[in-house]
UniProtKB/TrEMBL annotation:
NCBIfam families: PRK11713.3-5, RsmE family RNA methyltransferase. It is found in: Cytoplasm. InterPro entries: Alpha/beta_knot_MTases, PUA-like_sf, RsmE, RsmE_MTase_dom, RsmE_PUA-like, tRNA_m1G_MTases_N. This is Ribosomal RNA small subunit methyltransferase E. Specifically methylates the N3 position of the uracil ring of uridine 1498 (m3U1498) in 16S rRNA. Acts on the fully assembled 30S ribosomal subunit.
Length: 230
């Protein structure tokens, strides 16, 4: 379970809010029960419930079970898509181990507002589910031209293009790297030109079919991780 408090041998954190609701109401934890906690800073710790109230619990830290995880330095830059599909991108990219999630606003992006709080909650849930002890960073949304203007030259940007490109598996782009996928309507011709002008960009194809935006994001992430993410 994620807890936003620095954990350590001497910590006696109090858990409240939705986490307490989950532990008390769903898991039915009582005093003396064990619980695994992580804080995104110091790794994972085994704790014991010291006191279970109605809406909060106090836990006692027993020992560290895992250090803070180091994930491969892969960013997923994605045009936000609608609700359930965006949820899917966030959940699966977190499970697959991306280091950073970067929403990119493109000319054909139809989502009006990126709900950072909702995404942050999904990131935490996905980390809890898959046992990841370091949350991926969630960057503020940025427009595509700005993203490219500030792009760090040493980081290859694998631009997934349904119009063609080198087969994804043939491109050797170890960390630090990033993947870029477009919105429901794809990238415009002007954006393609802008992308191909950027020296860090490598245009990649994910097969002959036009994939849903979320399929492309996750397929590319999975392919990269299979090769470079140990
Ligand atoms: N209309 C569908 C939707 O609503 O999801 C398809 C959208 S597709 C145009 C969205 C993005 O997925 C593209 O901009 C591209 O980044 C990526 N993509 C889809 N198929 C691809 C392929 N075969 N190769 C590379 N990238 C692909």
């Amino acid at each position: 379970l994620f807890i936003d408090t620095l954990l350590g041998p001497d910590a006696a954190p109090v858990i409240n809010g939705s986490s307490a609701h989950y532990l008390l109401g769903v898991m039915r934890l009582k005093a003396g029960d064990p619980v695994l906690l992580f804080d995104n800073r110091s790794g994972e710790w085994l704790a014991t419930v010291a006191d279970a109230g109605k809406r909060s619990l106090t836990v006692r830290i027993e020992r560290q079970t895992r250090p803070l995880e180091r994930v491969p330095d892969l960013w997923l830059c994605f045009a936000p898509v609608k609700k359930a599909r965006l949820d899917w991108i966030i959940e699966k990219a977190t499970e697959l181990g991306v280091a950073r999630l970067q929403p990119v606003i493109t000319e054909r992006t139809i989502v009006e507002r990126v709900k950072a709080e909702r995404i942050a909650a999904q990131i935490i849930e996905a980390c809890e589910q898959c046992g990841r002890t370091a949350l991926p960073a969630l960057a503020d949304p940025v427009k595509l031209p700005q993203l490219l203007k500030d792009w760090p030259a040493e980081r290859a940007l694998l631009f997934a293009d349904e119009a063609g490109g080198a087969a994804f598996n043939s491109v050797d782009a170890p960390a630090p790297a990033a993947i870029l996928t477009g919105p429901e309507g794809g990238f415009t011709a002007r954006e393609r030109d802008l992308l191909l002008d950027c020296s860090a960009v490598r245009r990649v194809a994910l097969g002959p079919r036009i994939l849903r935006a979320e399929t492309a994001a996750i397929a590319a992430t999975g392919l990269w991780m299979a090769r470079h993410g140990d």
